[in-house]
């Protein structure tokens, strides 16, 4: 795992040092979750003000959304397989990092494509990559990040959490059944879990 380093040839400001410590703090908390694979990729020292929306990188889509992806909200990108959902997420992540935030990407398909992400503009700075096998693990990680942000208050840099993908994530019960070679029958369990978890998400 890589730790946070200042830009070569420059001294970090006090604010950059504080933000670096904050991101490392979130990272260390994620590492404490059992069976979670998490990697920290530097924090971006550059800072630009994040406002109410972050651009998707697609002007036409930004217009439809009223300015881009709204901050402080839960959004879903859905569509057919290979329709470009992850690509849109990479574009949003790139713009978010450029504007002074950091990204926690929770990958349930082990499909994060770093070369493609970098080609789109997602700098390695400011990304925490985590892998989860079940919906419950995803929820645990999101709650850890959100509570960390809440505890840090005004000192916390803006954070974008990307989950790719909820649709492909089995519940723990389904995962256990698949591991044992069985077929899991309760098709509504994930929807019930999502509904319950969204009400519990710290605000």
User: What level of helicity do the residues show?
Assistant: 40-55%
Can you tell me the residue ranges where pLDDT is under 50 for at least 5 consecutive residues? 1-12, 42-50
Assembly status: single chain
Strand order of the largest sheet: 1-5-4-6
The overall strand count is 6
**Rg value:** 17 Å
Category from helices, strands and their pairing = alpha/beta
Helical stretch tally:
7
Task: Describe it.
The protein is an alpha/beta fold. It is built from 7 helices and 6 strands; from the N terminus they run H-E-E-H-E-H-E-H-E-H-E-H-H. Helix 1 (14-31) runs antiparallel to helix 5 (135-152). The chain is globular and about 45 Å long.
Write the layout of secondary structure elements.
Layout: H1 14-31, E1 37-41, E2 53-54, H2 59-65, E3 69-70, H3 85-98, E4 102-107, H4 114-120, E5 127-131, H5 135-152, E6 159-164, H6 172-179, H7 189-200
Parallel strand pairs: 4-5, 4-6
Antiparallel strand pairs: 1-5, 2-3
């Amino acid at each position: 795992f890589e730790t946070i380093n200042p830009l070569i040839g420059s001294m970090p400001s006090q604010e950059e040092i504080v933000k670096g410590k904050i991101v490392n703090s979130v990272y260390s908390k994620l590492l404490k979750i059992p069976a979670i694979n998490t990697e920290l990729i530097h924090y971006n020292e550059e800072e630009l003000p994040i406002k109410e929306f972050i651009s998707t990188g697609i002007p036409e889509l930004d217009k439809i959304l009223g300015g881009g992806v709204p901050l402080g909200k839960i959004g879903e990108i859905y569509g057919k397989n290979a329709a470009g959902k992850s690509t849109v997420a990479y574009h949003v992540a790139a713009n978010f990092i450029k504007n002074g935030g950091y990204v926690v990407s929770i990958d349930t398909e082990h499909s994060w494509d770093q070369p493609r992400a970098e080609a789109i503009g997602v700098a390695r700075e400011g990304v925490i990559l985590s892998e989860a096998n079940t919906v419950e693990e995803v929820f645990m990680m999101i709650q850890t990040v959100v509570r960390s942000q809440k505890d840090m208050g005004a000192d916390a840099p803006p954070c974008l959490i990307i989950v790719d993908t909820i649709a492909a994530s089995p519940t723990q019960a389904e995962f256990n059944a698949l591991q044992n070679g069985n077929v899991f029958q309760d098709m509504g369990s994930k929807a019930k879990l999502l509904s319950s978890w969204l009400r519990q998400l710290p605000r």
